[in-house]
Amino acid sequence: MGLLRVMMPPKLQLLALLAFAVAMFFLENQIQKLEESRGKLERAIARHEVREIEQRHTQDGLRDRDSAATVSNSEDDVVIIYNRVPKTASTSFTNIAYDLCGKNHYHVLHINTTKNNPVMSLQDQVRFVKNVTEWREMKPAFYHGHVSFLDFTKFGVKRKPIYINVIRDPIERLVSYYYFLRFGDDYRPGLRRRKQGDKKTFDECVSAGGSDCAPEKLWLQIPFFCGHYSECWNVGSQWALEQAKYNLVNEYMLVGVTEELEDFVMMLEAALPRFFKGATELYKTGKKSHLRKTSEKKPPTKESIAKLQQSAIWKMENEFYEFALEQFQFVRAHAVREKDGELYLLAQNFFYEKIYPKN
Predict the structure, then answer these.
(1) Which residues, 6+ apart, have CB-to-CB distance to 268 below 8 Å?
(2) Which residues are catalytic?
(3) Bigger pLDDT: 57 or 299?
């Protein structure tokens, strides 16, 4: 190349440079068009799959449109929304739902938002609420995706979906996400990740004051539970913390923790057998119980943890985590008992009496 530069006149060198730049621009443009085409193809395939399911239901006569009132009162009208927080064992849990859907006769639908944006536009909120409540061909349904909590009552819905979720120790979640962006996991090991090639450890990042391990990155579980209000996404908002706590207690049927996932699965099976019958056994014995493991993850040092724990953001996220953990353990204490190291569900502990009139 050096010899060519010596032999070529300056004008030819300039032309060669321009030609190279044009070629690179053309290639980038073609790559972008290919990406857009792939996106369109994926959406077309998804629409085709939906049409096939709807047609199958229509042909088999599984839904009688004239009996909507009856259906609305049956357990076949139930919709569960799992607005999963990233890196909380959500893939492991979701795969249980996928493994059981054929056997237990319900549909699983992934909510795939553009660029994994957890906040929907107002028009998408309306569309989503309409789909969830009126799409009878898909019921009973289990929806899952990285979206923040959405209050269905704002849209005049009489019957709300059942919300469930799982959260994790905030520093553990951040560490897992940090390495996931660099090394991926054993679920799709060949997929190139956004930070691939960056070999810096989490400890080195904290020591250098890097942005990927900054305390602001901890602010995720609170806004996911807080929802679609602007204040939810203001990092360090006390109002967001209180709203997240309120929603957890009042809008979610059950919120588990990653560290006690098996107990969460067991309690869901007891409360919602229509969906989760067989889930506990599958979790204990199935190959997908711990399907997704982040690669190359190194535990942070005590010094790194202590530095993050000095921030007000960690204190708020940890307060929310401790609040959720306490609530989960309270619910569990009234649902199960431990014997010989094994957990057992309590039998029904209420009955009816003094029923009048007698005739």
Answers:
(1) 164, 254, 275, 276, 279
(2) 144, 146
(3) 299
